[in-house]
Amino acid sequence: xxxxxxxxxxxxxxxxxxxxxxxxxxxxxxxxxxxxxxxxxxxxxxxxxxxxxxxxxxxxxxxxxxxxxxxxxxxxxxxxxxxxxxxxxxxxxxxxxxxxxxxxxxxxxxxxxxxxxxxxxxxxxxxxxxxxxxxxxxxx
Length: 140
Fold this sequence. Notes:
Layout: H1 3-21, E1 31-32, E2 36-39, E3 44-45, E4 49-52, E5 58-64, E6 70-73, H2 75-79, E7 81-88, E8 91-93, E9 100-103, E10 107-115, E11 119-125, E12 134-139
Parallel strand pairs: 1-5, 2-5, 4-12
Antiparallel strand pairs: 2-3, 5-10, 6-9, 6-11, 7-8, 7-10, 11-12
């Protein structure tokens, strides 16, 4: 067999053995990420880098002080994750997908998700990304 066929067989073996080790419900006992607070007075985020693992369940809490309307985007992360739910002030939304979230006022939003693919996925606040309101999800 040529090298390509051996590589393909090896990749198939790894995928099969990894799939066989996933047991139970992935969407239980979420790992809580550090809260990300948006300070509209100083235009800062309390967290700008999140280290994640594929196949692990996470809860990302975003807290906004209400000074301005902010739209948070992370379309690449959301496209490469399974979104379990979005909780806004104790109200749950079970989305089929997600592109962004927006704060019109002070409040808290929790996003519960499982990243599926590895990569570096940016997040930012629309119109403020060049002023420091941006960060990265590093998924391994």
